[in-house]
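Below is one such protein, fold included:
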Amino acid sequence: MNFDRVSQLDETAEKRAKILKLMKERGWGAVVLTKRHNFAWATGGSDNHVRHASVLGVASLIFFLDGRRVVFTSNIEMPRIMDEELGGLGFEPIQYQWFSPKERWDALTSLLKNLKTASDDHTPGSDDIEPWLPGIRMRLSRHELMKYRWLGKTTGIGLGEACKKINRGHTEEEIAGFMFDALQ
């Protein structure tokens, strides 16, 4: 199955509508999503991580009640994020110098000035959005259902193929290798 940019655009629009509805209900003027799982969910599968050991990604999505959408990251991450992850999804890039925490803080403060804000990364002065996200995620979109069905089918086929290769005497590492090869 091919999950193309058109499908991702549709899915991202659905997620944005859910976020905007929550913003209206809670009285938030902006929402900042930096955690990797929230970034991926809001973008239909895009990725903002560099280090696997961190729950926070290197780029934040900022949604505004007026419909504006921003991706906020450093100047060294922005080209990759826009080219590989968010290109064509309608996010306005706003960057800061990677070596200047003050510039990052000033730019973020300017973006969120006079707005009641929620975030998943403890942006100073913001409400915690995490308790509110499960409620808007529980009903899967048609895009998510298609992805889960494809993933289940593909995984089942791959594991079946890996199991056919297993013989008495194979080590756990060899079997894990069969599974790894089958699921790539």
